[in-house]
Amino acid sequence: MQREIWQKYIFVASMSGITTLMGASVRAILTTPESRTIYEKLLHEIFRIRRCTL
């Protein structure tokens, strides 16, 4: 159960954060190399936070 909660949190936090920051749709972000790089860095940061809390 804990894993599913974290998966949902990671998805929601990363997508809401990046779409707000960029003011763009998920598709636009993921298909633009620069935006995708920022999104990937955001995901890595969220994963680091998760590891620290376990």
Q: Summed up, what is this model?
A:
With 54 residues, the chain is mainly α.
Textual characterization of the structure:
The two termini are 14 Å apart. The longest helix has 21 residues, at 2-22. This protein has helices at residues 2-22, 26-31, 33-53. The model has no long low-confidence stretch (mean pLDDT 87). It has 54 residues and is mainly α.
Instruction: Give the distance, in angstroms, between the N- and C-terminal Cα atoms.
Output: 14 Å
Mean pLDDT: 87
Helix content: over 70%
Range of strand content: under 5%
Treating each run of at least 4 consecutive H or I residues as one helix, how many helices? 3
Biggest sheet overview: none
H/E element string? Answer: HHH
Radius of gyration: 12 Å
Structural class of the secondary structure composition? mainly alpha
List segments where confidence is low: pLDDT < 50 over at least 5 consecutive residues.
none
Give the overall silhouette.
Answer: elongated
**Number of beta-strand segments:** 0
Spell out the blueprint of helices and strands.
Blueprint: H1 2-22, H2 26-31, H3 33-53
Provide the descriptors you would attach to this structure in a database record.
54 residues; mainly alpha; 3 helices; 89% helix; 0% strand; elongated
